[in-house]
Every structure is written in structure tokens, then in C-alpha cells.
Specification:
The protein has twelve helices and 14 strands. It is an alpha+beta fold and 361 residues long. The termini are close together.
């Protein structure tokens, strides 16, 4: 999500306020209008990527057509809010969820009232199609989300494992000391990682595409106590393979004795010297997950990566696996969600499972 709509202390007159209105857009017809609002509002990412991103997220959505909403001031469109719809599971029950994205308002209109109007109208419309609405706002938009309220708020922590320590040490130490110290630290880490792999019963490999094993992994996953988005082959192909402006890598871990049975997958994207894990799914024990994380670490280092990064909200088993494979928590950001009445009790007892696959970026 790329929200750029922080509230300010500016007060507008009632006459000015009445000039604001929110209008639903037509996905197929209003592409140029949406791109113009993105451009004038300082929407994130390269402007050259915006047309492809609009085609992917709004016109080629996997299930039902996404919603677009325009904030207008007089005759001018000065804000935008999108909602994409996805299949989710809550305690094993299939539902439709909506993710709130692309929340932008023109800089000269970034007061609380216009932003709140846009969110309220967009959410009211989306609730006709979805039992769960959620958003992961940037820091500037958190105040708007908090003011609107919601039944649930959870944190999406970011974990990092350093694979090459020299760059980080040079921020704290002189080069003559950082260089030999990083060599010692990195060598020790590699030996430790390989030692943990000596009796591994699995193997990891990079894949060029998602195959039927990903559907089978999703079917085997116990979803009875989870609140999470569907991660079958169809979703993964849409989310990661149909974006021409982005490049993702798939790392699959299988049993050595049965390579047809997928145990863990990681979907990764290179960002400078960091390999970012955009999504992962695992079936098996915590020990198997630790083994898979170590395999990915070795392969990422072999590719020249200096660090691994992962944003994930999961259960204690996942957190323990990350901690025991030298991942450290760096920061976190909030997820806000509102739900319909009939699933509210189920969600209270469910464990949220969130990765960046549940966003649109």
C-alpha cells in the first residue's frame, strides 16, 4: 500500500467542505483518470511502472473486479482509494476479504476530513462484497486508520538475517577493524549453518514456476485455527508471476526421499544487496522450518546477497524458527481490520498469518 494522506491541523470552512465528494470509478474506463491522480499525488514507485501495475491489480484481478474510488473537489479528482478482493480462510471457513490500497490525496488537500471521507465511502462500498477488510498503512496514514477504528489490530514484524557483516560493521567501526572482524563473524556463521545441515533430510532448489505441488501443499495445511489468505497455485501465479515490472524467485524445499512432496516454499525479490522474502508457507515441524531457512540462507549468500529480510505475522513456532536461525526483529507496522458480524467470534480465536503476499506491493 502507498498511502500519502496524513491528516493536518488545517481547518477548512463549511463551504469548502461541501465541495468534497467521493465517487466510485469504473475500472475499465477510468485508468487514465486514476493514473493522473496517482501522478499528481506523489504515488509511490516509478511512474513508468504505474500503467502495468494498474492493469495487473485492477483489470486482471483473480476473483472479482477490484473497486476504485475517487475523491473529488469541485470538478477535479484529487484522491484515490482502491480495494482488491481475495479469497481468505477464517478458522477453515472460506470468505472474501478486501485489501485497502493506493490511498492517496493531492498534497494541497491533505487534511483529515477529505481523507476520512474517502476511506469511509470506499469501505462502505467494499463491505457489500467482503466479510473482512484490512489495510497495512504507512506511518503517515496510521492516524486516519486509527480514527476510523476497527475490530482488530495486529503487528507485522520485520525480521532480518545478516549474511555478510562487513557493510554493517563499517557503520560502527573503522575499516581496518571491520574487515577482519567481518571475516571472522561470517566464517563462523557459514560453518555453523553447514553444521546444522549435516543430517538434513530435505533439499532446496530454485524453481522457474509454480506447479501442482503448491496446490497440494495448500490442501495439506491445517487452516482450522488460522486467519489467512488463500495461497494456492492460482493465487501465487497471479500475485507473483503476472507482474511484468517485478521479478521474483521461487525457492522450494522438498523431502530428499520424496521430491514430489513440497514442504516449504519461499517467494523472494532482490532489493539491492538484500533478498526480501515476500511470502512463505510451511507444512511440518519447527525443526523442518529452521532447516528450510538455513538452506535459503546458504543459497542467498551464494547469489551474493548480504542479508535476508522477511515481514511475517505468524504463530510462536515461526517466531522461534526465525530466532534460532539468526533472524533478528528490526521493526514492525500495524494491520487494521474490520469484519462482518458472522465471523467476528471465529476471528477472535484465530491466529493471523500475514506476509507481504497479502499486500499489493
Amino acid at each position: 500500500m502507498s498511502p500519502n494522506s496524513p491528516p493536518s491541523n488545517e481547518i477548512r470552512t463549511d463551504c469548502e467542505t461541501q465541495r468534497y465528494r467521493v465517487q466510485p470509478g469504473a475500472v475499465q474506463q477510468d485508468k487514465a483518470k486514476a493514473l493522473a491522480v496517482w501522478r499528481m499525488s506523489g504515488f509511490g514507485g516509478s511512474a513508468a511502472e504505474h500503467p502495468g501495475r494498474y492493469e495487473w491489480f485492477y483489470r486482471s484481478s483473480l476473483h472479482q473486479l477490484a473497486h476504485i474510488n475517487f475523491l473529488e473537489y469541485g470538478d477535479e479528482a484529487i484522491g484515490f482509494l482502491g480495494v482488491g478482493f481475495r479469497k481468505w480462510c477464517v478458522a477453515g471457513e472460506p470468505i472474501t476479504a478486501g485489501v485497502l490500497v493506493d490511498f492517496v490525496v493531492h498534497p494541497s488537500h491533505r487534511t483529515a476530513l477529505p481523507a476520512l471521507m474517502l476511506q469511509r465511502h470506499g469501505r462502505r462500498r467494499a463491505k457489500q462484497n467482503a466479510q473482512l477488510l484490512y489495510g497495512l498503512p504507512a506511518a503517515k496514514a496510521e492516524a486516519i486508520f486509527r480514527r476510523l477504528g476497527g475490530e482488530f489490530e495486529c503487528q507485522l514484524p520485520r525480521f532480518v538475517r545478516i549474511l555478510r557483516s562487513r557493510t554493517y560493521l563499517e557503520r560502527l567501526l573503522p575499516t581496518w577493524l571491520a574487515s577482519p572482524l567481518s571475516l571472522l563473524i561470517d566464517s563462523t556463521s557459514i560453518v555453523w549453518t553447514y553444521a546444522r545441515q549435516l543430517f538434513s533430510r530435505s533439499e532446496g532448489a530454485w524453481l522457474e514456476r509454480f506447479d501442482d505441488r503448491f496446490d497440494e501443499l495448500w490442501r495439506r495445511l491445517d487452516k482450522r485455527a488460522r486467519c489467512m489468505g488463500v495461497r494456492d497455485r492460482g493465487f501465487l501465479e497471479w500475485r507473483f508471476m503476472q507482474r511484468s515490472e517485478r521479478s521474483y524467485q521461487i525457492f522450494a524445499v522438498t523431502e530428499r526421499s520424496n521430491p514430489q512432496q513440497l514442504r516449504t516454499y519461499f517467494v523472494c525479490e532482490r532489493s539491492a544487496a538484500t533478498l526480501v522474502i515476500k511470502d512463505l508457507l510451511h507444512v511440518g515441524s519447527g525443526k523442518e522450518l529452521r532447516d528450510a531457512l538455513l538452506k535459503l540462507s546458504l543459497c542467498a549468500r551464494a547469489q551474493g546477497a548480504s542479508a535476508l529480510s522477511l515481514e511475517i505475522a505468524g504463530d510462536r513456532e515461526i517466531t522461534n524458527a526465525l530466532r534460532r536461525t539468526q533472524f533478528f526483529k528490526r521493526d514492525s507496522r500495524p494491520l487494521f481490520a474490520t469484519v462482518s458480524e458472522h465471523i467476528r467470534e471465529k476471528i477472535k480465536d484465530a491466529r493471523w498469518y500475514i506476509t507481504q503476499a497479502d499486500e499489493d506491493i
